[in-house]
Amino acid sequence: MVVSKGWNVKEAPGGDRMNAENPRSRGSHFSTLVLAAASIVGIVVCALLAEPFLGAITWAMALAILFVPLHARVETKLKHPNLAALASVLTIVLLVVVPTAFLVERLVEEAASGAASIRTRVADGELQRLLEAHPGIAPIGKWINQQIDLPSILASLATWLSNAGATFVRGSVLQVAEVLLTFYMLFYFLRDRSAVARLLHDWMPLVSADTERLFQRVFDTVHATVYGTLAVAAVQGSLGGLMFWMLGLPTPLLWGVVMSLLSVVPVLGAFIVWIPAAILLLLDGDWGKALILAAWGGIVVGGIDNVLRPMFVGTQLRLHTIPAFISMIGGLALFGAPGFILGPLAVTVTMLLVELWAARDKLNNRKQQE
């Protein structure tokens, strides 16, 4: 009997050879299929188990990536891993959670008071008198008044914002639980980041160089999303809100935050707020304020993106406007708030995987030609 790899070769009577498949080979293929099926089922079950914690996992991962340099410095001062991770988490809480909670509370209160103020002005006919003072646009105001019950809409908005403010101040159980889970996971992401990196390296079905490219793309995407998008948008909103405050316009904090949110979305921007505000100032006869606001919005607020984005991001992430828009808006629609990070991550990682497959395909074609 001669045994070769994968086949059992027998000497048959008369010198004929008869090849038969090795039963062990059939068992090996079956075991591989069972293992693959069990792995897929296990991955799906794990994904379903993790789904309720998706927000906490996403924010913990993002914060860990952003604050690793800070934690590395803390580790040089505090040699004990647990103590260093705890100190870093407490520092991040002071830097992120406390200012955010204060800003949200003040924002909702200002939004409610601003909506109530606008409702009162509309109910008193102030907006209508302003439009009638300019015959060229008076028909527009008349049409709006006929088609939309603006006082009722603003009254409902003011009530909703007031209730939302009370909810934010109290905080729901789920919101508090997600915040606590985020920082609980952040503690271990910081403390055990080396072990996590090694584990992911072992699990990735890629060569070491491709795994490093994948990790680098994830880091770059998180940095670009937070620094290149959120930070720039925050600066634009702050500058716009500052000018609203200096010109004595109502609810500058509210409109500053609105400008920040609009600056985040590709193809939109802070101009959606400051251009109508400048027009209203013109209609009200405040030519000086209107010109100042228009110049500030067009030159400073609009141009700050071209100055800060290269400084914060460099060439880390350069998505075309269309995939950037789809990744952000689609991510928010699919995952909620965590989608702001998960959406761009999904797009950029998928693009990298397609690049890796294309590179392998070219390499295989080159080898076949040789």
From TrEMBL:
Domain of life of the organism encoding this protein: Bacteria
Keyword NADP: no
InterPro entries: AI-2E-like (IPR002549)
GO cellular component, one term: membrane
Bilayer-crossing regions: 30-50, 56-72, 84-104, 168-190, 224-247, 253-283, 290-308, 328-358
Topology of the protein relative to the lipid bilayer: Multi-pass membrane protein
Subcellular locations according to the entry: Membrane
Keyword Transmembrane helix: yes
Pfam families, per the entry: AI-2E_transport
Keywords: Membrane, Transmembrane, Transmembrane helix
UniProt xrefs under PANTHER family: TRANSMEMBRANE PROTEIN, TRANSMEMBRANE PROTEIN 245
Family listed: Belongs to the autoinducer-2 exporter (AI-2E) (TC 2.A.86) family.
Name of this chain's protein: PurR-regulated permease PerM
Species for this entry: Aminobacter carboxidus
